[in-house]
Write a structure and sequence with these properties.
Layout (H helix, E strand, L loop, with lengths): L1 H10 L15 E4 L7 E5 L8 E5 L10 H12 L3 E5 L2 H4 L8 H10 L4 E6 L1 H10 L8 E7 L5 H10 L1 E4 L2 E4 L4 H10 L6 H11 L11 H9 L13 E6 L8 H9 L4 E6 L17 H15 L16
Parallel strand pairs: 3-4, 3-5, 5-6, 6-9, 9-10
Antiparallel strand pairs: 1-2, 2-4, 7-8
């Protein structure tokens, strides 16, 4: 029942506050974490709840982003003890290897192993953190919502609109203002080699990633979860909208192929980029809704679990 109420509220972006109406309001308070700004969301009357760390995407307000606060509150109402760190790079629309630091610190500060949820580009940061030796045994499950696998392919997508993995490929039209904003925030991701790739794409010429300079490729490699996916010991749940125009769903296909064991991939049409899509027009996608319900149910079974059983370890 809780899973159904949670999913209904999430898919309608709070328009139908099914779970909110039936649960106590969570408290929001600072969580002392060395070297990081972190908020904690928890329903005070509840005890022995599973910790959860929620990692935001490109959000100038960080942990104070309105949608992020609403998501953290909903997760707390569902029974989690939620920690939300601000990721400094992502507040400036920048991609940086050091973004993992506040996530690692938040995991280390939790008294018990935590569920790790990453949103959009923040899902990449979450997975990079989950692979760190000092905390990877403190992660019970990683849930990626609209995340990416390859930073190089993600940057190419932002610059050219092209996406591809295996036999799946396509192109979307990006708002020029979005591209300009990304370029201003990430000047070091646009060296001379990247400009040549961009110019080639603008001229309708294929722009191979191997044309990027060694230094830029090294930076992008350091930002790529596919590089460390094998080191993540926790199960992976990858949820992606087929119509996502911010991070293409081929990125989740790529990640699932990189680490297929103990990984579940769910591609759906009832979500766009993380938020619920126009559900009223998509009730025919019953299979998608059921798939999301199974993911939600799997996630929420951990909300009050004291110890993960052998059955919970599988996400197949």
């Amino acid at each position: 029942m809780v899973a159904a109420l949670f999913l209904a509220e999430f898919l309608t972006a709070g328009a139908w506050p099914a779970l909110t109406r039936l649960t106590s309001a969570p408290a929001r308070e600072p969580l002392p974490v060395r070297g990081a700004l972190v908020d904690r969301h928890i329903v005070p009357a509840r005890t022995a709840r599973t910790p959860l760390v929620l990692v935001h995407g490109l959000a100038p307000e960080g942990k104070d982003d309105t949608r992020l606060v609403a998501a953290a509150s909903l997760l707390a109402r569902a029974g989690f003890d939620v920690a939300v760190p601000t990721i400094p790079g992502l507040t400036q629309l920048r991609l940086r290897p050091e973004d993992v630091t506040p996530v690692v610190a938040s995991l280390a500060a939790r008294q018990r192993p935590a569920v790790l949820v990453g949103v959009s580009v923040g899902a990449g940061v979450a997975m990079l953190a989950a692979a760190q030796p000092e905390v990877r045994e403190r992660v019970r499950l990683v849930l990626s919502l609209g995340g990416y696998a390859s930073a190089a392919d993600l940057v190419r997508f932002y610059l050219t609109g092209e996406y591809a993995f295996g036999d799946t490929r396509g192109r979307v039209g990006h708002d020029p203002a979005l591209i300009e904003t990304f370029l201003r925030a990430n000047p070091d991701l646009l060296d001379a080699s990247a400009r040549r790739v961009l110019a080639a794409a603008a001229a309708g010429v294929d722009a191979p990633l191997h044309a990027l300079s060694p230094d830029l490729r090294a930076l992008l490699d350091a930002l790529s979860p596919e590089r460390v996916a094998h080191a993540i010991t926790a199960p992976l749940l990858l949820v992606h909208g087929r119509d996502d125009i911010a991070v293409p769903y081929t990125e989740s296909l790529r990640l699932a192929a990189t680490r297929p064991e103990r990984t579940r991939l769910v591609l759906v049409g009832v979500v766009g980029h993380v938020e619920g899509a126009d559900v009223v027009e998509r009730w025919s996608a019953v299979r998608d809704v059921l798939a999301l319900w199974t993911v939600t149910y799997r996630l929420l079974t951990l909300a009050s679990a004291g110890r993960m059983s052998a059955g919970e370890m599988s996400v197949a």
